[in-house]
Amino acid sequence: MIEDIDLREVEKKAWRTYMSQDGLYDIFMGIMLLTLAIQAYFYNIWFTSFIFVAVLVVTLGKRFITLPRIGLVKFGKTRMMKQMKMMIALLIVFLVVLTLYYLSIFGNKPHEIVGRLVIPAFIASIFVIVAYFLNYIRLGIYGLLYAFSEILRGVYDKPIRNIAILVIGMIALIVGLYVLIQFLKKYPLPGKEENLA
After folding, report:
1. How confident is the model at residue 96 (pLDDT cuts 50, 70, 90)?
2. Which of the four, 94, 104, 124, 187, has the lowest number of CB atoms within 10 Å?
3. Phi/psi zone of residue 187: left (φ > 0), alpha (ψ -120 to 50 degrees), beta?
4. CB neighbour class for 29 (10 Å; exposed up to 12, middle 13-18, buried from 19)
5. pLDDT digit string (tens) for 178-189?
C-alpha cells in the first residue's frame, strides 16, 4: 500500500515536471496570445506564422531541453484514464455550448447576447478542465484571463479586448521564460552536472 502511494506521488511529480516545470507551454500560450493580439491590430497574415513558432518551441523544447534532463517517462493506465476523462468532459462542454447556441438561434434571445456569455464561459471551461486534468494551474489562470478579455469585448469594444490579450500574452511569456530559466538551473544536463562536481 505504501509502495502504491509512493509510486503515485513519483508519477505525479514526474508529470508536473514534464508538463509545467519547464515553462514551455507558458511560452507557447504567450506567443499564441501575442500573435492573436498583434494580428488583430495589423491584419497581416504573416503574423499567423508565429503560431508555427509557438508549436516549434514546445516540440523542439521538449525534445532538446526537457527530455535530456528528466529522461523519457512512460505514464501508467491511471494517467491515461485521466486524459480520457478530460476528453469526455471537453466533449460534454462542447455539446452544451452547441445546444445553447442553437437554442439562441431558434429562441427569443438574440444570439449576440448569448454569445457574450456563452463564448467566455466556453473558453474558461475548456482551459479550467484541461488545467485540472493536466495538473497545470497556470493554464487555467490564462484561460480565465482570456475569457475575461472576451467579456471586455462585449461590454466595451474590440481594442480593449486586444490590449487585454496583449497583456495576458506578455505575462504568460515572461512567466514561461522565468520558469524555463529556473528549470535549466534545477536540472542541468548530466554531463555538465558531472563537470561541476
Report:
1. confident
2. 94
3. beta
4. buried
5. 999 999 998 888
